[in-house]
Amino acid sequence: MTNPQPKPADVKPTFTLPPLPWPKKALEPHYSENTLNYHYDKHHKAYVDKGNELIVGTGLEGKPLEEVIIEAKKKNLGPLFNNAAQVYNHNLFWESMTPNGGGTPPQPLLDKINESFGSFDKFKEQFVAAGIGQFGSGWVWLVESKGKLEIVKTGNAETPLTDGKTPLLVCDVWEHAYYLDYQNRRADFLKTFVDKLANYGGAAAKLKNIKGPKP
Question: What does the buried/exposed string (b/e) look like for 36-73 if buried means 16 or more CB atoms within 10 Å of the residue's CB?
């Protein structure tokens, strides 16, 4: 007898909704449980669910998330790319915030920030300015590229992964990311992010874990 083919319910989904790294109230008063009820439970989950629908039959099922994003971009699978990239972007956004965040970044991240931007204060100014300057929906990133740090902004679902850069920290500037807490005050949200929410320790750990020659 041949083994029966697995039923769709038995197939492990390529994309999953990871648990938040902290309780929903943990970022208050800077980022509310109310916002997370929509942003995480509805928006993020919708990208996971749609991505699992769109990946069927592409040959990318079961591949690592980063690989799916890069291959979907190469193959011009626009809807799959958009949903997979948004899963990745949101995953990193949650990791980029932490209770009692902000403060001074640990080494070696602080040295790399000073080297790349002149000072930590200048980094924060440039990060906020990039986020304000991102027209419409998108993201502002701190990335490592060829041993240096850069601030990158991307529109919609775009991610620096497809340019061969390593994201360390990201802030979501889609309006739904902050509107319930900050209304149209994107600048206030970005300033709060760099001063009160940013997980610089997590970014430093990602910097240390980059493979290849150390920056």
Answer: beebbeeebeebbebbbebbeeeebeebebeebbbbbb
Mean pLDDT within 149-174: 97
Tokens (6 digits) for 172? 């979501």
Is 27 inside a domain boundary? Answer: no
Pair (77, 116) in one structural domain: no
For the entire predicted model, the pTM comes to 0.92
87 lies in the same domain as 122: no
3 compared with 29, residue with greater pLDDT: 29
Q: How many CB atoms lie within 10 A of CB 143?
A: 21
**Residue range 66-124, pLDDT digits in tens:** 999 999 999 999 999 999 999 999 999 999 999 999 999 999 999 999 999 999 999 99
Residues 168 and 130 in one domain: yes
**147 shares a domain with 171:** yes
Question: What are the tokens at 174?
Answer: 């889609």
Same domain, 180 and 119: yes
Same domain, 140 and 198: yes
- pLDDT for 46: 98
Cβ-proximal residues to 69 (8 Å cutoff; 6+ apart), any chain:
81, 84, 85, 88, 159, 161, 162
Query: CA-to-CA distance for 125 and 14, rounded, in angstroms?
Result: 38
Residue 3 inside a domain? The answer is: no
Tokens read off for 198: 């940013």
